[in-house]
From TrEMBL:
Keywords: Methyltransferase, Transferase
Example GO biological process: methylation
Organism, scientific name: Limosilactobacillus avistercoris
Residues of the Methyltransferase domain: 39-133
Top-rank taxon, per record: Bacteria
Keyword Calcium: no
InterPro entries per record: Methyltransf_25, SAM-dependent_MTases_sf
One example GO MF annotation: methyltransferase activity
Name this polypeptide is given: Class I SAM-dependent methyltransferase
């Protein structure tokens, strides 16, 4: 029987088009520093990092999950590129050097417990950027957590009925702008039975002004906020915001 972890299944079913859009955003917004050292923070299975490496970007992946980093190593080997992989908590980057570009996508910062943890991460990023370095990241908005996600459902089944995915989201009544995601995979094994793998994820959003204030407190003086991967001006009705920050 072939058993797969949640990380493997999640990586296989994640929308690959999003990585292409993050790649384009990174290359455009970070073009002045992209020739230097890049850190993909909370880089997970390394999909974006591999695409950057294929563009000859010197990129390091840092992630809290050793399992995700193992997948990143596998993807890098398959693509024939070099990636430095570091297991690290984004709130403590003291073992890492400075970088010219730091990225953090897929609303990874929304998974932190509270605004204090987000600000700690901002401070760590600031400390690990070179003088002219750029910090690029995205976060989902309160509109996403409060309006879009509550009651959201998504079901997927592949054509040969070997895998299915169920995603349900609920408002977190105990957390302001909080949302709970119930994620379940069903994976058919060699004996015809199904393996069930599930996780519960918690996200929290913050207002644009709260995030701007936290970035300024961390030391950033140049902050640009947009939506639609940098294509439009950010508003409170956007589901996701994109940030470009400099010292």
């Amino acid at each position: 029987m072939i058993y797969q972890s949640f990380a493997q299944l999640y990586d296989q079913l994640f929308d690959q088009e999003l990585y292409k859009r993050w790649l384009d955003f990174t290359l455009k917004q970070g073009q002045t520093v992209i020739s230097g050292k890049c850190l993909d923070l909370a880089g997970g299975a390394g999909r974006l990092a591999v695409m950057l490496a294929q563009k000859r970007v010197n990129v390091t992946v840092a992630d809290f999950s050793s399992e995700m980093l193992s997948l990143a190593r596998q993807h890098a080997d398959e693509a024939g590129v070099e990636l430095e992989l570091i297991e690290a908590d984004m709130r403590d980057l003291n073992r890492l050097p400075k970088y010219d570009l730091i990225t953090c996508y897929a609303d990874s910062l929304n998974y932190l417990e509270d605004l204090s943890s987000v600000q700690t991460t901002f401070q760590q990023v600031y400390k690990h950027l070179t003088a002219n370095g750029i910090f690029l990241f995205d976060m989902i908005s309160p509109y996403k957590t409060d309006i879009v996600y509550p009651g959201y459902m998504y079901n997927y089944e592949d054509d040969d009925h070997q895998r299915a995915f169920m995603w349900r989201s609920f408002m977190d009544d105990d957390v302001e702008h909080g949302v709970i995601h119930d994620l379940t995979f069903f994976n058919q094994l060699n004996d015809g039975k199904y393996q069930r793998v599930g996780e519960t994820h918690f996200e929290r959003a913050y207002s644009m002004s709260e995030l701007e204030d936290s970035l300024k407190m961390a030391g950033f003086s140049q902050i640009e906020i947009s939506s639609n991967f940098g294509q439009e001006k950010a508003t409170d009705e956007d589901e996701r915001w994109f940030f470009k920050c400099r010292k």
